[in-house]
Amino acid sequence: MLLELLYPLRTSADWLGWLNVLRYVPFRAVAALLTAMLICFALSPWFIKRLQAQQIGQTVRSDGPQSHFSKAGTPTMGGSLILFAVVIPTVLWANISNAFIWIALLVTVAYGLIGFYDDYRKVKYKDSAGLPGKWKLALQVIIALGVCAFVFYAGEGSLPQDWLEPSNPLSPLEVVRDTPLRLRFAFPFLSFDKYPLSLPPWAYVVFGAFVIVAFSNAVNLTDGLDGLAIGPVMINMVTYLVLAWVSSTVLFGASLADYLDIPRVVPAGELAVFAAATIGAGFGFLWYNTFPAQVFMGDVGSLALGGAIGTVAVLTKNEVLAIIPGGIFVLEATSVVTQVVSFKLTGRRVFRMAPIHHHFELKGWPEPRIIVRFWIISIMLALIAFAQLKLR
Question: Taking the domains of the chain in order of start, what are their residue ranges?
């Protein structure tokens, strides 16, 4: 919004020439990050007091670790403030004429509303079950399919032209020259141009929706310890901030995406602002969510943030790469699936409790040790995601 309002004023007077800085994505990304942090720092004390006054406290599972019983009553639904701190800076500092920004915000807010209703039911009925899982999953799938159908079927005028045209018109490979960027498939460690693979729109709609829904629920499963989920969320968003900027940037007349042989998604550059706002909101929330937590994000935060990660991965053409920086989320979700399948087939449990962070709790690991070690692993995985850019 500020780009549209203030940038044209740069030529109206000499002293307003500094407004030219608004054209640069890195500047606006930093501004969005700081704005989101300030919003969280300014509003969190008041927000936590309001949650306490309304007796909006965490309902702990009766079958969970005994160490969690003391957390009952801790204010929850802090993800509502995270959403506010993501949406406002993004609208302020991003180019609001970019469709990708609105797509990312739509999924984030929509999934946040699903999580909000789930949390509301938990608080109202004092039951950790909340919204029945089948209804929660159905709503997530409907939203993801609708968004992906628009992304992969929309025609000219609805989405940026770069997304609709071939990714590299100069490529000698016919399949690359004739295939729209949005239908191209990118794999980690493999050249984007030398190993062309495309999918029909319907297949991409299904696959993209799966990525969004999977990451939303994976982050939700990870959110079981103080600060455990928000750390990897921020690390993932740092990864996508860099990838979004690189995929859209030209330096000294050369495209960084072409140099690194990755998808050149020019309109995705603005997603760096969205990612930065998410990082800033994460830092602000972590200030109060670090062990021992003063507030929990609840499903309103975890479902929204997971949906945001999945959406950015789809729009930047990093759907498969997302497995690497999001390895912690994949591990948590896989541990739950493994536990359920093993118990149904053999009657035995692979882990003492799933998700896997509870397994380590029951083994005697202190909560801060689990959290920090999972963060370290997440940072290592993000570095691998960056390293593979030069291993093609």
Answer: 2-10+24-60+72-323
